[in-house]
Amino acid sequence: MGDMPRIWNETIEAHRDAVREATINATAALVAKHGLTGVTMSQIAKDTGIGRATLYKYFPDVESILHAWHERQIDQHLRGLVEVRDQTAQGFPRLEAVLTAYAQAVAHRGEHDNNLGDMLHRSEHVAAAHQHLREFIQEVITGAAATGAIRQDIPADELTAYCLHALAAAATLHDPAAVHRLVQTTLAGFRTSDRE
Amino acid sequence: MGDMPRIWNETIEAHRDAVREATINATAALVAKHGLTGVTMSQIAKDTGIGRATLYKYFPDVESILHAWHERQIDQHLRGLVEVRDQTAQGFPRLEAVLTAYAQAVAHRGEHDNNLGDMLHRSEHVAAAHQHLREFIQEVITGAAATGAIRQDIPADELTAYCLHALAAAATLHDPAAVHRLVQTTLAGFRTSDRE
């Protein structure tokens, strides 16, 4: 019987996660259908079957749900990039694979965003998530530099800013072949310059 | 006496330009001193010595003056880039000089912007000015491609999006040497890839 509290706590935790997930999913579906301004807490309560009073215990307003949604998306995105990193060989292949996955995600996001990004990108959570992304990419770049696969004359933080900005151009591209060309062009910037 | 209307019209035109310039300059100075929210039409009228009634004939509100200011800055910026283009040899040197001037302007703007950019970047005039910038850069890239100085395997519009996005990273750089390195990294992306 000594295990009861732990099991009970885990059950509560799992239940809370399920409520959060259901709320976020229902909100995402409502935004997709009605746009940002067409979503209310009452509608979310109705669609999830969660009571309004309970819903308000989890989230004070629609905006906080949207933030949680965006955080979850960034988390999933980062986890995807970590998987790509771990499945590829150290050095240039890893850098190429990670930057390709990142550019594809940016291109995909570019298609589906509609002012939502603008609003959410200002939040502190999102700023922290972007900081994680920069650190992650910088680690991959430092790793590639350590194998001698890329130029050594530019600091890793500057190469990180360069490639994240360059690949942001993917948001304007709809053709996967164009995204591939953008990644190749950006990667060419990592090669040793013969004019320096 | 047949020239009178023309001279008179030119005088009026010059006077109008002077009023517009004085208004824009005074507004820019007030924003620098008090921030965006601390600027009123009355204060602008007082600082310029232009009557309030006259001022309202030129601009309906502070925001329209700020837009005129931003347009003027973009115009000056583009004229500067055109000068750089015309003073450099066709091909890679011209591309390098123009992209360097652009990156320096972005770095300079990055230091001085304070939310003003966010507000103004949404205007139609600014969208048109950005379109001019893209067209201008694309022409320079097409010119460099025609001399065989850069890779031919990526369409010029994609190279334009690539380099304008990459050089936007200059807004986060304060060190001129770092801006130079960013331009060199970005230019390396224009060289023929040996992995394609």
From TrEMBL, chains A, B:
One of its GO terms (molecular function) is DNA-binding transcription factor activity. Residues 40-59 bind DNA. Pfam families: TetR_C_43, TetR_N. InterPro entries: Homeodomain-like_sf (IPR009057), HTH-type_TetR-like_transc_reg (IPR050109), HTH_TetR (IPR001647), Tet_transcr_reg_TetR-rel_C_sf (IPR036271), TetR_SbtR-like_C (IPR049445). Keywords: DNA-binding, Transcription, Transcription regulation. Residues 17-77 form the HTH tetR-type domain. This is HTH tetR-type domain-containing protein. It comes from Rugosimonospora africana. The lineage of its organism: Bacteria, Bacillati, Actinomycetota, Actinomycetes, Micromonosporales.
